[in-house]
Amino acid sequence: MTKSVNLYLASGLNDDKSFWIVNFTEEDDILNSLSIELLEFYRKELFGIEAASEVKEAINSTLDILAFDSKFDRYKLDNYITGYSSEIPINIIEDIFDLWTYTYNNNNWKKCIGLLKFRKKIKTKNDYINLGLKGDTYEFAMKLNDLLSLTSVNLSFRIGNNNELMW
């Protein structure tokens, strides 16, 4: 039997810069067990160590794609060594975390990881990829594309952002 660990999503602070972090630990008291200053937890799931490692890798890969694609959408996300930019809205981070923790527990894990790896290789958003998909795989691909699209969110850090009228 494998060890159980807590996979978590938290916000942290390092050198007066806030960030998001996805990681896992064996400790139950996560706030006092780490060397970095964590401010608040948003998600925490119990996994085996191997499963936590796989899910963490999927979440972080998705966030890497999001950060990379944001450059094409003319968004500027700060890069952090410790974690991901706090400028990414919490609802997107939580949805990515929830998507992968839920997906790990169903039969489509390998297909979904394959889609993620393929999406990482092509480096751009292409709807033609979804034409050959069907069923649960198609639904997953659509959810993933929605989560990787910052264009649906009005963010203040868009490069060349003009103050537009409200109406």
Spell out the key features of this protein.
4-stranded antiparallel sheet, 42% helix, disordered C terminus, 167 residues, 5 helices, single chain, alpha+beta
Overall pLDDT level: 77
Helix content: 40-55%
Strand content: 15-25%
Unreliably modeled segments: 152-167
Quick structural overview:
The chain has helices at 30-33, 49-72, 90-104, 109-122, 135-147, and strands at 4-14, 17-25, 37-48, 84-85. With 167 residues, the protein is of the alpha+beta class.
Overview of the structural elements:
The protein has 167 residues and is α+β, with helices and mostly antiparallel strands. The chain has one domain. The chain contains five helices and four strands, in the order E-E-H-E-H-E-H-H-H. A four-stranded antiparallel sheet has the order 3-1-2-4. The longest helix has 24 residues, at 49-72. The chain is globular. Residues 152-167 have low confidence and may be disordered.
Which SSEs are present, and which pair or pack?
Elements (H helix, E strand, L loop, with lengths): L3 E11 L2 E9 L4 H4 L3 E12 H24 L11 E2 L4 H15 L4 H14 L12 H13 L20
Antiparallel strand pairs: 1-2, 1-3, 2-4
Helix pairs in contact: 2-3, 2-4, 4-5
